Amino acid sequence: MYSDRIRHPALTGKIMQAEEAVTLFRNGMVVGMSGFTRAGDAKAIPVALVERARREPLSLTLMTGASLGNGSDGLMAEAGLLARRLPFQSDATLRRKINAGEVMFIDQHLSETAEQLQSGSLGPVDIAVIEAAAITEDGGIVPTMSVGNSASFVQQARQIIIELNLGAPLTLEGLHDIYIPGPRPGRAPIPLVSPEQRIGSTSIKVDPARITAIVITDSADSPSTILPPDAETAAIASHVIKFFESEVAAGRMGPELAPLQAGIGTIANAVLHGLIDSPFRDLTMFSEVLQDSAIELLDSGQLTFASASSITLSSAMYDRFIKDFDRYRSRILLRPQEISNHPEVVRRLGILALNTALEFDIYGNVNSTHVGGTHMMNGIGGSGDFARNGQLSIFVSKSVAKDGAISSVVPMVTHVDHTEHDVDVLVTEWGLADLRGLTPRERAPMIIEHCAHPDYRPQLRAYVEEACRRGGHTPHVLGEALSWHERYQSSQTMLMR
């Protein structure tokens, strides 16, 4: 009855309920699950594993591409199922467990997980759980709305469970470009020189004998929760667009710019949305995730091609995308994240990287992961892959949080994810600081006057003045460098009264 979905006849005998499939799991196993920013994630197996964990002890190491949807991370964390989790997450319940030390979390550059799997430093994958739209005649797995680390998990795993999602349209077949770099030493260069180029296959190749179970589902991905642009994100977008215009005017790039990357989230989505009213044409993207704004840019005609590892859309945009899929088929490719985020490819293509900061300091160091330097938010994701290797590394943030009680521009960040050496441009709703070619002493006033909220500028100026009196290539008042964060902890504001 699933002949259009399961085209390898011998595999139909492996169909079973999720409750039966989870009997394959053993305590202490390493599990790789498909899923990248809520898209293409397994839906039935996580729920069945939670039910089993509520009846008997069961603890796993879980790897994914990025965050899961449908509350899966939270459900598994609450049930005590997760002993260790990597490389990225965005669930509030799991975050609480991580910060309480109840789940060990490895925050990892998204390009590195597959590399460490291949080198053996992360240990073998016992079971891979992969969502698929179909299984081909030779047993190949056709992914759904993401690829993530699925191909690497399949390559590594001793056993493979496929969640065959009848809700994923068969028209998705052909959307994917599956290429896995060869082993080291002697690895050949990745033969990718433009975002639209195909270098791999349309399915994940696997020996059908390693597929131990097929679970039938019919569930949608969780919709994205990005907010529409507001006045502040619109201002940030305006600053970025003016900066790109100045780069074109200076002859450093053409009106088609260079391939764009944008991190997940409301601010980055809003900046891309702002490009709809820009003068740029024939744009391309080479990114991790395509959000609503990417589809809008395709619709406007300004974006000609988009390559990513995942498509994560709002409910309305998803319906529109699937309904008109034939319009997008030839203009989108989904790749494994070790290709979408690979430093070699990012450097070769000259990516313009746009990512979000929690906070940044007066010298350009960026914290994108830890609140107050200690509490994990989501993880570094792919921002480091692009920031260090892209042609331009741009970080955006609103200048304040908590109704002005927290400044996003501080004397010293409490945790460094991206050093000043990897950051070219900082942007808030107040302005843009182009840090290229500037020394630390030149960067500080540029960041303060262009990016900081006016309420915090006097404090920042005073700090820099005192720090420069004390001297140093990167002047600091060590006893006061983190005092803003301490002040917030004690009085719930960074402002000096």
List descriptors:
497 residues, seven-stranded parallel β-sheet, 17 helices, alpha/beta, globular
The biggest beta sheet is recorded as: 7 strands, parallel
For the secondary structure, the number of strands is 26
Tell me the distance between the termini: 71 Å
The number of distinct helices, counting runs of at least 4 residues, comes to 17
Uncertain spans:
none
Commentary on this structure:
The protein is an alpha/beta fold. It has 17 helices and 26 strands. Strands 4-3-2-1-5-8-9 form a seven-stranded parallel β-sheet, covered by helices on one side. It has a five-stranded mixed β-sheet with strand order 10-16-21-25-26. A three-stranded parallel β-sheet has the order 11-13-15. Strand 6 and strand 7 form a beta hairpin. Helix 2 runs parallel beside helix 3 and helix 15 runs antiparallel to helix 16. The longest helix is centred in the middle third of the chain and has 19 residues. The chain is globular.
Element layout with pairings:
Layout (H helix, E strand, L loop, with lengths): L17 H4 L8 E4 L10 H12 L4 E4 L8 H7 L3 E5 L5 H8 L4 E2 L6 H8 L7 E6 L1 E2 L5 E2 L7 H7 L2 E7 L45 E7 L13 H19 L10 E3 L3 H9 L8 E4 L2 E2 L1 H9 L2 E6 L1 E2 L3 H9 L1 H4 L3 E3 L2 H4 L2 H7 L2 E5 L2 E3 L4 E2 L2 E2 L3 E2 L6 H7 L2 E5 L3 E2 L4 E2 L1 E2 L14 E4 L2 E4 L5 H12 L5 H14 L12 H9 L6
